Write a sequence for this structure.
């Protein structure tokens, strides 16, 4: 019996290895390089407490006397601080590691929330159709007509004013996840609804109905797994978007506090010093942000090309 | 019908009608006609006032060209669509108004096979998952071993090796997929099978395999079939009775042998003559004028009037009703009724 | 001299993991005014044969070897510019689905005039006159009005007639029709086939009809090729092949038709499936499905042999014939 299971697993592994996805990946240098950079960033940030020489969240570990030291390769640089320090004397390398971690965490959690809301609403709208569909899609249209940033700015500014900065800073992470997650669900809902409408016409759904399966089973067991490719593609783009949204909000002072910096708040905190010659405080986190978003988008583009059956079969 | 006394009716359709709205939203129905704003709903009349019975143990074939409403009829009977008008009875119980839960026992008794074996199986489920699912849903509390036995038995009966169960549908050819789709329908031990063009997407040499499989299932399990097809040669082979449809209406209903030996409705005659024959003894092809009109605005009178060589003023004004002929056929045609030739 | 002569044509497709031989040593001749049917199941290579005659095989496919001599010129090695003077002009092609063959954003008239002007030096008015004549030839009512219509305004049968009219515009010597009626209804199919047959006969146009329907072939063509897994397995006059097929596959195909069996009886069936072109077995490609297969069939690919009436690629055909002849007499 166990050998049978092993055989099945082996064949599944062989199937993955032999799949078009993997084949295409291995023959696409852009995808490989993007993936390596992305994986490096993710692994580095995941282990940032081990890699980082300092803990940027601990004010006792940095000294105002070390403030605005340039990167170590500059003349005035200090070899202790690889990428220099910020205005408070915090090691920028450690701050970037921790900050990227916060940014990625917010990006992924916000997208998970978007996906949950959007997929549920899209499935229901597409499968039930009629008035429910009209109502939900008009809701989505309304939501889309407000820009994400506008909704987020209004909401965050109001809560900040209501509860005070200190309370706001404590829950900033969750609020960012919530706001970005709720503001962008229509992207998912629309995509999922469109695929559900296409899948619903296929005979396997009729076959399931003829077998007497209930709507919930048909939606979750039959239609959803067949709609997974576009969800996959949109998720990569949305993670990149969420990271940018978070950075923008933090840059505007409505996101992560400077004591727990994300990439956006690091960029923001350095912006005041850019004219006094301390370019690195803004520029280095900025480059990290651009590279991170770029590789995610490149991976997303590649995924879309591979998974889009129209392009692929054509 | 002469069999009426012998075989009880399994399915009875009374004045069955199905219309599809073409204009969905409210705004689409608003039109400007002669300077006035009116609300106008266009509808496709897919099935019109059909009375048909299916007797236990028979294979009733429904033939017609695309757009004649034969697939809609199959879906109505299978409960995938709700009729706009009329009733469907299953062994005397009206089923078209039943709610989801009360319908469940009938779902188990009737199963459907679809045209496209590439679309009728869920691409993300293994064969095993696809076949086990209906067994579990319809037999609450069944043990895992029993489910597996049942699935293996059904797979063997359709000639699919049970050891292939962990594969995905894309690893099978069209013919094998159609076998698997038939197996899936058989897992719940139905007594009535609705087959919507089950072989028209398959290659010639595979068509025979699947047709044989369906005949076998009919004999071994005593299945009753509603078989939808456009292929008359298959009808002649498979059907015990044939219903010819045109534009959503029943033209002619007769025993297969009677229909092929002595077609009466002008449309049936044209249809039979159009089948390309292998040997050169086919009767001269009867050329119909024009093409099938769209079922959006149905003409008053006989639906076939625009293409019929024998149409007269009465055909344009009055819709023919089905009349019993001496040899047991039911024909809806004024020309046949009046003996025009 | 024959109009078209295909000799030892090999077409290959370079796929990711292997190179697939889609057409394997295809040879046939077509005389002026002759009608040829190519029969086979999907994946047998019959459509690829049609495309390769026009040298329209696109990446990853390519013509690996062989000649396609059309009026003595080799289409396989011709320059792209020369090919364009033949395509549409002297060889026309009719495709399966009339719904997608016509460009939906151009009127029928624009498409017909465009085709004419691409090959002839004609004024718009002259081109329209020719278009109207051709539309009349395919029994399109009110052809002047049709020129202004868009494809979506016409029914499927009407569109296929217009496609035939476009194919005839430049008075081609050869029409290649790839499943021209599969997407149409039975009654319309019979009309279109009758029309195509009339036009070919009256204009002395050769026809290559690619189809899976043996009934259509037997009514339309004089010669037939039966293809299986990229090879011609039987070729000869259509009557001979339909009435007295020699290859076990052709026999199986004809016996499997429901007309050949009494109602309610089991149909005679060929077991198994046609192998995919990526996985053609050694020896005769049909041997796993053939009831007469011997060790020779499993190891050696049979060459196509001239048996007098027909050509057949089968090791066992001689022996089968000896066995079958007395049976035939008793029947």
């Amino acid at each position: 019996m166990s050998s049978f299971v092993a055989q099945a697993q082996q064949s599944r592994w062989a199937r993955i290895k032999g799949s078009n996805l993997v084949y295409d990946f291995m023959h696409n240098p852009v995808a490989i390089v993007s993936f390596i950079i992305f994986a490096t960033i993710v692994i580095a940030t995941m282990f940032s407490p081990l890699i980082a020489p300092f803990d940027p969240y601990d004010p006792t570990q940095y000294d105002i006397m070390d403030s605005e030291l340039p990167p170590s390769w500059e003349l005035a640089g200090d070899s202790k601080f690889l990428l220099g320090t910020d205005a408070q004397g915090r090691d920028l390398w450690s701050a970037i590691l921790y900050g990227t971690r916060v940014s990625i965490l917010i990006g992924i959690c916000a997208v998970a929330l978007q996906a949950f809301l959007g997929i549920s609403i899209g499935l229901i709208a597409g499968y039930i159709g009629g008035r429910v569909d009209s109502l939900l899609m008009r809701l989505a249209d309304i939501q889309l007509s407000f820009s994400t940033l506008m909704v987020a700015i209004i909401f965050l500014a109001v809560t900040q004013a209501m509860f005070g900065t200190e309370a706001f800073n404590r829950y900033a992470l969750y609020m960012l996840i919530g706001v970005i997650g709720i503001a962008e669900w229509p992207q998912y809902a629309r995509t999922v609804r469109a695929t559900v409408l296409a899948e619903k016409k296929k005979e396997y759904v009729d076959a399931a109905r003829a077998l007497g399966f209930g709507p919930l089973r048909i939606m979750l067991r039959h239609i959803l797994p067949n709609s997974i490719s576009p969800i996959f593609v949109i998720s990569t783009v949305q993670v990149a978007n969420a990271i940018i949204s978070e950075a923008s909000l933090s840059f505007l002072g409505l996101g992560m506090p400077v004591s727990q910096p994300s990439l956006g708040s690091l960029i923001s905190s350095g912006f005041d010093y850019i004219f006094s010659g301390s370019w690195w405080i803004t520029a280095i986190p900025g480059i990290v942000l651009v590279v991170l978003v770029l590789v995610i988008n490149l991976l997303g583009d590649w995924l879309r090309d591979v998974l889009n059956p129209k392009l692929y079969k054509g | 019908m002469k069999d009426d006394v012998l075989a009880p009716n399994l399915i009875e359709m009374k004045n069955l009608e199905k219309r599809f709205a073409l204009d969905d939203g409210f705004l689409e129905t608003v039109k400007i006609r002669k300077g006035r704003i009116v609300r106008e709903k266009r509808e496709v009349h897919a099935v019109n006032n059909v009375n048909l019975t299916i007797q236990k143990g028979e294979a009733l074939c429904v033939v017609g060209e695309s757009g004649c409403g034969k697939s809609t009829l199959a879906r109505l009977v299978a409960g995938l669509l709700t009729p706009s008008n009329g009733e469907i009875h299953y062994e005397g119980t009206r089923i078209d108004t039943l709610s989801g839960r009360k319908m469940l026992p009938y779902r188990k008794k009737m199963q459907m096979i679809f045209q496209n074996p590439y679309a009728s199986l869920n691409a993300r489920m293994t064969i095993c998952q696809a076949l086990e699912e209906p067994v579990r849903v319809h037999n609450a509390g069944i043990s895992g071993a029993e489910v597996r036995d049942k699935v293996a038995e059904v797979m063997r009966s359709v000639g699919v090796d049970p050891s292939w169960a962990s594969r995905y549908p894309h690893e099978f050819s069209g013919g094998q997929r159609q076998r698997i789709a038939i197996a899936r329908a058989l897992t719940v031990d139905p007594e009535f099978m609705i087959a919507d063009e089950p072989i028209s997407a398959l290659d010639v040499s595979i068509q025979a395999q699947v047709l044989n499989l369906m005949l076998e299932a009919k004999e071994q399990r005593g299945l009753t079939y509603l078989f939808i097809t456009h292929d008359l040669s298959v009808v002649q082979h498979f059907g015990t009775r044939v219903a010819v449809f045109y534009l959503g209406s029943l033209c002619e209903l007769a025993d297969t042998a009677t229909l092929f030996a002595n077609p009466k409705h002008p449309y049936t005659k044209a249809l039979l003559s159009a089948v390309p024959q292998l040997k050169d003894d086919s009767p001269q092809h009867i050329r119909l004028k024009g093409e099938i009109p769209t079922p959006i605005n149905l003409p008053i009178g006989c639906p076939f009037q625009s293409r019929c060589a024998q149409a007269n003023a009465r055909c344009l004004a009055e819709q023919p009703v089905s009349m019993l002929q001496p040899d047991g056929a039911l024909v809806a045609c004024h020309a046949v009724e009046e003996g025009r030739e | 001299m024959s109009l078209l002569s295909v000799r030892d044509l090999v077409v290959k497709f370079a796929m990711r993991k292997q190179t697939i031989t889609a057409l394997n040593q295809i040879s046939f001749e077509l005389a002026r005014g002759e009608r040829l049917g190519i029969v086979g199941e999907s994946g047998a290579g019959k459509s690829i044969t049609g495309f390769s005659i026009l040298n329209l095989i696109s990446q990853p496919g390519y013509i690996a070897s062989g000649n396609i001599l059309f009026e003595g010129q080799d289409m396989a090695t011709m320059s792209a510019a020369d090919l364009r003077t033949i395509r549409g002009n002297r060889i026309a092609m009719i495709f399966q689905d009339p719904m997608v063959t016509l460009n939906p954003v151009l009127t029928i008239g624009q498409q017909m005039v465009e085709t004419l002007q691409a090959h002839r030096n004609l004024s718009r008015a002259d081109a329209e006159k020719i278009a109207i004549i051709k539309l009349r030839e395919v029994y399109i009512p009110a052809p002047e009005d049709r020129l202004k219509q868009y494809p979506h305004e016409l029914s499927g049968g009407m569109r296929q007639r217009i496609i035939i009219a476009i194919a005839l515009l430049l008075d081609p010597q050869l029409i290649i029709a790839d499943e021209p009626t599969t997407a149409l209804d039975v009654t319309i199919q019979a009309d279109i086939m009758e029309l195509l047959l009339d036009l070919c006969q009256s204009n002395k146009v050769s026809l290559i009809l690619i189809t899976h329907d043996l009934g259509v072939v037997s009514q339309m063509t004089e010669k037939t090729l039966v293809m299986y897994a990229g090879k011609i397995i039987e070729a000869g006059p259509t009557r001979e092949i339909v009435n007295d097929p020699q290859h076990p596959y052709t026999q199986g195909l004809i016996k499997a038709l429901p007309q050949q069996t009494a109602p309610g009886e089991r149909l005679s069936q060929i077991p198994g499936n046609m192998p995919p072109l990526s996985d053609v077995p050694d020896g005769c490609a049909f041997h796993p499905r053939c009831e007469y297969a011997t060790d020779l069939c499993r190891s050696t690919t049979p060459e196509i042999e001239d048996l007098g009436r027909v050509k057949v690629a089968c090791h066992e055909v001689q022996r089968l014939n000896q066995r079958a002849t007395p049976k035939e007499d008793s029947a």
